[in-house]
């Protein structure tokens, strides 16, 4: 398998689509529907990449998850792609996301853009 990807989103249809899409590309994907519960599981599962929406159970759920992941030394280096339709929040907090080394993919997105960001995030750093 090319890599293990976690997808955190409260939309079941989106989760199913993303899992099928990524698995079709050779990745192993696991979905998490509740941001508040996902943090503990992500610490244990240790994905190579996390794709997270910012608006889930509450408008702040995704933001809080990102903060927790970045504050924990074990999860801090894990690449995060923020995938959201909330263009206003993505643009308004762009500097905040850059400071936390998060990439952004605005919905709706092009499949090739998603796959390029995934491949880039999972690429091994040069030795």
Description:
The two termini are 22 Å apart. 46% of the residues lie in helices and 19% in strands. Helix 2 runs parallel beside helix 3. It is of the alpha/beta class and 127 residues long. Strand 1, helix 1 and strand 2 form a beta-alpha-beta unit. The chain has a single domain, classed as Response regulator (Rossmann fold, 3-Layer(aba) Sandwich), CATH 3.40.50.2300.
Question: What key phrases describe this protein's structure?
Answer:
single chain; 127 residues; Rossmann fold; five-stranded parallel β-sheet; 19% strand; globular
Please write the CATH class name. Alpha Beta
CATH architecture annotation = 3-Layer(aba) Sandwich
Biggest sheet character: 5 strands, parallel
CATH superfamily: Response regulator
Helix and strand element order: EHEHEHEHHEH
The total of helices stands at 6
| Domain module count | 1
Q: How would you summarize the topology of this molecule?
A:
Elements: E1 4-8, H1 12-24, E2 28-32, H2 35-45, E3 49-52, H3 61-71, E4 80-84, H4 87-92, H5 94-99, E5 102-106, H6 111-122
Parallel strand pairs: 1-2, 1-3, 3-4, 4-5
Quick recap of the structure?
The protein has 127 residues and is α/β, with parallel strands linked by helices.
């Amino acid at each position: 398998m090319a890599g293990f990807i976690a997808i955190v989103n409260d939309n079941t249809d989106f989760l199913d689509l993303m899992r099928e899409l990524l698995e079709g590309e050779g990745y192993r994907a696991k979905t998490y529907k509740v941001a508040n519960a996902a943090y503990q599981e992500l610490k244990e599962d240790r994905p190579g990449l996390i794709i997270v929406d910012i608006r889930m159970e509450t408008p702040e759920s995704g933001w809080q998850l990102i903060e927790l992941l970045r504050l924990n030394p074990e999860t801090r280096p894990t690449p995060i792609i923020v995938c959201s339709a909330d263009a206003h929040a993505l643009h308004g907090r762009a500097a905040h996301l850059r400071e936390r080394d998060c990439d952004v993919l605005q919905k709706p997105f092009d499949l090739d853009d998603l796959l390029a960001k995934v491949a880039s995030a999972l690429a091994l750093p040069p030795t």
